[in-house]
Specification:
Blueprint (H helix, E strand, L loop, with lengths): L19 H35 L2 E4 L2 E7 L3 H7 L2 H34 L4 H8 L1 H4 L2 H12 L6 H5 L10 H29 L3 H9 L4 H9 L4 H16 L3 H6 L9 H11 L3 H26 L9
Antiparallel strand pairs: 1-2
Helix pairs in contact: 1-14, 2-14, 3-8, 3-11, 6-8, 8-11, 9-10, 11-14, 13-14
Length: 308
């Protein structure tokens, strides 16, 4: 095969404006999502606004009387601190590694779940078990499994008294593995929904044309599930970029494993530096918004494509 098989595109003479059906679906969408959106806005608007406001002050919780307006000084202090950039680097590394691995593993699991006829429901339930476990509980399980004194991993692989949490690279490895194990089922579930929306006749036509599995995957399956891939990768990237539980439970930021969220916690809770902690939180919030905007523009996927 020499060309990608995709769903039929609209005829060139079709009107570019929204059809009556599309406008009706848009109104229905706002009617269904509007109340939840309004509640979320009311719940989150005040904390976000308060964090932005506190970020302009030098404010320690132990000395509220010494509160002083400093403008952008907190942001300058953070951006000039090497610890902040270490946290950004660690966060970016964990995000890229976990999301890429989860995308490939989740895609494979999704294809398996789609093709298995019996026991389909049992298989999907088993796959989702890791995602159903509370993140803190999962993090503690991985921590004790890899701990030098209580863990079974060293015994299984004959590693002796190797301390997985004694250096940066091994700590980051365990943190990333725990994140991949926990959230790959979520990725597979989103990708499974994309596979279910692909017209089966397209793959059947490719098989008739003699396409190999790899050709069907790259020229039929993936091009026709771009929207599902975008949603899955976007959701997991935003979630991974805010990673906190695994790092806090396993290292608490030690061995140079500090991440964005752990840094914000350390400044706000441990050091009671409300101003600096709020500034870090605002930077994290802006980073998440920037990532979302970049993904939407980079994928250039019309989620309403194919509707009339």
């Amino acid at each position: 095969m020499s060309a990608t098989i995709e769903a039929p595109a609209p005829a060139p003479n079709m009107p570019t404006g929204l059809s009556a059906r599309a406008r009706g679906e848009r109104r229905l969408g706002w009617a269904l999502a509007g109340p939840a959106f309004a509640v979320m806005l009311l719940v989150t608007a005040y904390p976000i606004g308060q964090a932005i406001w506190n970020g302009f002050f030098s404010y320690r919780l132990t000395d509220p009387g010494a509160r002083e307006f400093v403008g952008l000084a907190n942001y300058a202090t953070i951006l000039l601190d090497s610890l902040f950039w270490l946290a950004v680097g660690n966060t970016a590394l964990i995000t890229v590694v976990t999301v890429v691995v989860e995308l490939f593993l989740g895609g494979g699991i999704a294809m398996l779940m789609q093709r298995v006829v019996w026991p389909r429901h049992t298989l999907r339930t088993i796959v989702l078990i890791p995602y159903s476990i509370i993140t803190v509980v999962s993090a503690f399980a991985w921590f004790y499994g890899f701990h030098v004194s209580t863990g079974f991993v060293n015994h299984w692989f004959g590693l002796g008294e190797f301390d997985w949490f004694g250096q940066w690279w091994s700590s980051m490895t365990v943190i990333s593995l725990s994140e991949i194990w926990k959230t790959t089922p979520f990725m597979s579930l989103l990708l499974l929904s994309g596979l279910a929306n692909i017209d089966g006749s397209l793959e059947e036509a490719a098989i008739v044309d003699g396409a190999t599995f790899w050709q069907r995957l790259t020229r039929v399956i993936v091009p026709n599930m771009k929207a599902a891939v975008m949603v899955a990768v976007l959701f997991r990237t935003l979630d991974a970029f805010r990673i906190f539980d695994n790092v806090f439970v396993m290292t608490q930021g030690g061995q140079h494993t500090t991440t964005f969220s752990v840094l914000a916690y350390d400044q706000t809770i441990n050091r009671v530096q409300i101003g600096l902690g709020s500034a870090v939180s605002v930077l994290l919030f802006l980073s998440v918004l920037a990532i979302a905007a970049i993904f939407v523009r980079a994928f250039k996927v019309d989620l309403t494509s194919g509707r009339s």
